[in-house]
Amino acid sequence: MSSTLKMEILMNKENKSIEEKFFKIYRKHVQRYKHRDTNQMCCMWSIANPPDEIYECDQIYNIEEEFNISLTEDDALSLYNMHFEEAVQFIEMKCKVI
Q: What is the sign of the dihedral through the CA atoms of 64, 38, 2 and 8?
């Protein structure tokens, strides 16, 4: 079973919209770096040449714009170290705070 199919099976109906939007951003950046999809958020950045910037970058800007939220540098570092499912919950909580 492909990891994409596994991810679709794990989708929670309550946050499906957030998950779908976030998955598009995730896939965009994972494909950009031609990583094997491991569901690890760090794959949105280069892992062969670790990123100099995790915070002020397209990945974070895309997330902030899509969900109309602001992320701190600590938020970005936390996201970088999460798996996709954890990151969806993190984004969902950030959306509720607003």
A: negative
